[in-house]
Each structure stands twice: as C-alpha cells, then as structure tokens.
Write a structure and sequence with these properties.
The protein is α/β, with parallel strands linked by helices and 94 residues long. Helices cover 38% and strands 24% of the residues. The longest helix has 13 residues, at 48-60.
Length: 94
C-alpha cells in the first residue's frame, strides 16, 4: 500500500556529467508529486560545472540536498553514501 503523503527519496550519485545532472534535476523537480527528498552526491568531480548546476538548483528548490565529496570514493561508496542519507518512506535512483 502506497501512502498518499509518503516522502520519496531520489538519489543522484554523480561524477563529471553536468549536462546529465541538469536534465535529471529538471525532470525530477518538475514532477507533479511534490513530496520528494532529492539527494545529490558529487563524487569529487573535477568539472566545476557539476557544482555550479547543483548550487543553481539548490537555490531554486529546497527539497535538494547537495554533498560534494572531498575525494573520489569510487562508484560503490558514492551510491552507498546517497542511500545512507535518504530518510524517505520510499527510495529510487536517478
């Protein structure tokens, strides 16, 4: 049974993909279901555009949490980090 007001956590582990991150954030923040927790973990991307895009969306949407790793943790640990930050009733990857 799905709860009508359930929070859905959306995990976005990312590394050096600013165009994909922008597209993903546009699609998620424009959903009709608004009870979302959006978690971005930037795995120490050397491309500063990743940070700039995340910060741009942070200003526009308070549901977003942005974490930038100090050093690259590898994909598995970055995914695990996102999952551990989630507090929603449901979880999905994006």
């Amino acid at each position: 049974m799905i709860l009508q007001n359930a929070t859905v956590s959306v995990g976005i582990p990312t590394y050096n993909r600013p165009i994909g991150l922008r597209r993903t954030l546009e699609q998620i923040t424009n959903q009709t279901y608004t009870n979302l927790e959006i978690i971005i973990s930037d795995n120490a991307s050397p491309d500063e555009e990743v940070r700039k895009i995340a910060e741009e969306f942070l200003i526009k949407d308070k549901r977003i949490q942005y974490y930038r790793q100090d050093d690259n943790k590898g994909a598995s640990l970055n995914f695990k980090f996102v999952l551990e930050k989630a507090k929603g009733d449901y979880f999905m990857w994006a």
